[in-house]
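hey m, so remember when u said the tokens were messed up on ur end? i reran from scratch. heres the input so u can diff it against urs
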Amino acid sequence: MAASQQSSARGTWLPYAALLVGVIAVSFAAIFIRLAQDAKAPSLVLAAARLSVATIALTPLVLRRHRAELRAAVWRETAWAVLSGLFLAAHFATWITSLEYTAVVNSVTLVTTSPLWVALLAPLALGERLKRATLLGIALAIGGGILVGVSSAGDPPNRPDPWLGNGLALAGAVAAAFYLMIGRRLRARWSLVTYAWVVYGVAALTLVVIVLATRQQVLGLPAQAYLWMVLMGLVPQLIGHSSFNYALGYLPAAYVSLVVLGEPIGSGLLAIAFLDEWPVPLQLAGSALILVGIAVASREPPVPEQCAAAVSALAESREEIL
């Protein structure tokens, strides 16, 4: 009985711990991308590399532990996974390109407005009912995101076309919303590793085809560019997004996408340290609103049965890693 109670208690915080790890990991994404772009790496190549590295890293585990699950997947679920991968490819292609044209805080904040689109579409697509706390949290966070985006949109440091960059980041947010909602549907049936491998693989293949078709430069780049590419695939993608996918199995899509709004805070701090991009007061005010919105929305607890399932999933993941 005591062991059961302990497992239940641990299950309550597991999805939230995954979200925290995910936010920290993805906060490094914009920094790695900007450093790679400064090393003359094309944005589409960076997007393809990020997802390719993550897919390759997962492949041995999938082939060793999840071949039976892949063979058992029905065509309808596989089709949804392919569609999710296409949305993920669109998300990274537009967002990474946006960092060529606008400031880190602007780009990251606008791309994480996906909760707005999830909130509008999730009730119809997923049948999820949003509680008042979640709606209020989304409103506060979106308001803060607008402040951050507008505050320096006209004059971001060393960026040539902020409005184009902001528009691309917003397009990335819409694509991410569809990716999150499809993930919520599939993660109830597929394991984390299988889902991530299929979706990342589809997105990587899509972007590789685009890179080859548009004849982007892949070889002959500075050595540091390839280093940043590998780090993008391992830290923000493999660790960060896989953590979000894990949480999607137990928490509403709107809530997961809301917590991702913590990424602009982390990216902003890292941009100060690595890129010397300092936020203005209005950006700080917007960041504060985002944090308040996350705190308000976090009052909505997950379903108890989902928490119990998290414990079982953790044990399975531990066996897979070993």
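this time it looks ok to me. Residues 84 and 179 are 5 Å apart (CA to CA). if urs says something different then somethings off w ur setup not the seq
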